[in-house]
């Protein structure tokens, strides 16, 4: 029963992770980090690396979310969503019809294309899929990342496998400190005692981590629910409840507290992203001025949208703008424009005005 649910979740997760790089919002990837320009495309907007406060809040949100999920739902990530578990489960299922002697060898062969796809998918979150495939064996950087990731991921899954969860994974080691007596875990019903258990040990034989759940919760447990299904397959023949199952209390005060904190931080992050202006610009005065009463300035104009703008720059007060004042602003870009301003009076502050379709912004800067 549980294995069927886990398979559905695994397939949905794979479709989401693989398909997300192909999804486009306003002409750009829904989620992709553009390393050369240090910006993150995020579902129709762009977050620049200089907007560190957003990255900081997003990191805090993810940490709080991890604490919330682990404290309430236990090892749900390990058993249901972790790519390590998903890939090993899928490859195991595909080789289940083969004899035991050849199963390990065939599984290692099957992992070759699966891990190659994983390596490609990771690159797609930095380089668009079409560009990745076109340059896969012509770009040394893309080829290098693809091959190195493929070798590392394949080696880890094929030769380390489930042992990674119990020996290396830092999240697995952290989970125990976040659990409480009500955390949702897979456990043996001790109230019924081992005397009622049939002693078939099928739960031990099917466990991919090789543990005996009857002896209590172990850190090695990945909550895959294989033992539950094995127990059900034996107890339902006798018309009794299985001895192994999910134990814990999801709805409690801690759920409300941690869930509320997670929701508040998530809402703050969403509001900050939504309140960012579509167009923003900064004016800085260059120290070198070519003529007396003439100052040179640099305008840095940032477009956070997928729209293309034609903008006009002007100055207010007793000043004259020298040179071309029209700026073409492509989607999701920052344009730097150098301008010169001549003083026609005694003012020491110049106001730059940026106008465009539904755009009117002003910035004041000193004049020397």
- The count of domains is 2
Number of extended strands: 15
Read across the widest sheet, the strand sequence of neighbours is: 8-9-13-11
Largest sheet: 4 strands, antiparallel
Mean pLDDT: 89
Overall body shape:
elongated
Span between termini: 76 Å
Identify the quaternary structure here. Answer: single chain
Report helical residue fraction. 40-55%
Structure class: alpha+beta
Q: Provide the β-strand percentage band.
A: 15-25%
Instruction: Please give the count of helices.
Output: 13
Low-confidence stretches: none
Following the backbone from N to C, one meets helices and strands in this order, namely: HEEEEEHHHHHHHHEHHHEHEEEEEEEE
From the alpha-carbon coordinates, what is the Rg to the nearest angstrom? 29 Å
Task: Explain what you see.
It is built from 13 helices and 15 strands. The relative contact order is 0.11. By secondary structure, the protein is α+β, with helices and mostly antiparallel strands. It is elongated. Helices cover 45% and strands 23% of the residues. Helix 2 runs antiparallel to helix 13 (253-274) and helix 4 crosses helix 5 (100-124).
Topology:
Elements: H1 2-19, E1 24-25, E2 28-29, E3 31-34, E4 39-42, E5 45-48, H2 52-73, H3 76-81, H4 83-94, H5 100-124, H6 129-134, H7 140-160, H8 163-167, H9 170-178, E6 185-188, H10 193-196, H11 202-206, H12 226-235, E7 244-247, H13 253-274, E8 279-285, E9 294-303, E10 309-316, E11 319-322, E12 326-329, E13 334-343, E14 349-356, E15 359-366
Antiparallel strand pairs: 1-2, 3-4, 4-5, 6-7, 8-9, 9-13, 10-12, 10-14, 11-13, 14-15
């Amino acid at each position: 029963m549980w294995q069927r649910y886990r398979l559905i979740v695994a397939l949905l997760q794979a479709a989401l992770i693989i398909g997300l790089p192909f999804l486009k919002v306003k002409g750009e990837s829904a989620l992709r980090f553009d390393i050369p320009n240090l910006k993150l495309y995020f579902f129709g907007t762009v977050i620049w690396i200089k907007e560190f406060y957003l990255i900081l809040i997003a990191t805090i949100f993810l940490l709080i979310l991890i604490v919330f999920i682990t404290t309430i739902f236990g090892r749900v990530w390990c058993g249901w969503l972790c790519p390590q578990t998903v890939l090993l489960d899928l490859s195991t299922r595909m080789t289940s019809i083969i004899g035991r002697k050849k199963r390990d060898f065939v599984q290692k062969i099957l992992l070759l294309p699966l891990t190659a796809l994983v390596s490609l998918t990771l690159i797609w979150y930095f380089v668009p899929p079409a560009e990745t495939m076109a340059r896969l064996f012509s770009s040394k950087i893309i080829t290098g990342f693809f091959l190195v990731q493929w070798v590392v991921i394949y080696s880890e899954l094929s030769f380390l496998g489930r042992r990674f969860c119990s020996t290396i994974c830092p999240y697995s080691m952290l989970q125990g400190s976040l659990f409480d007596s009500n955390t949702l875990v897979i456990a043996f019903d001790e109230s019924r005692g081992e005397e009622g258990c049939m002693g078939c040990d099928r739960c031990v034989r099917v466990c991919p981590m090789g543990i005996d759940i009857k002896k209590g919760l172990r850190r090695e447990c990945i909550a895959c629910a294989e033992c539950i299904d094995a127990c059900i397959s034996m107890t339902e023949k006798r018309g009794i409840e299985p001895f192994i199952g999910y134990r814990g209390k999801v709805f409690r005060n801690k759920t409300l507290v941690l869930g509320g904190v997670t929701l508040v931080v998530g809402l703050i992050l969403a509001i900050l992203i939504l309140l960012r202006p579509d167009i923003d610009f900064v004016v800085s005065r260059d120290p070198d001025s070519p003529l007396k009463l003439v100052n040179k300035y640099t305008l840095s104009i940032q477009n956070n949208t997928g729209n293309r703008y034609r903008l006009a720059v002007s100055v207010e007060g007793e000043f004259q703008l020298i040179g071309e004042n029209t700026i073409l602003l492509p989607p999701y870009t920052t344009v730097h424009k150098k301008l010169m301003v001549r003083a026609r009076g005694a003012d020491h502050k110049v106001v730059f005005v940026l106008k465009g379709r539904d755009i009117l912004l002003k910035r004041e800067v000193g004049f020397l």
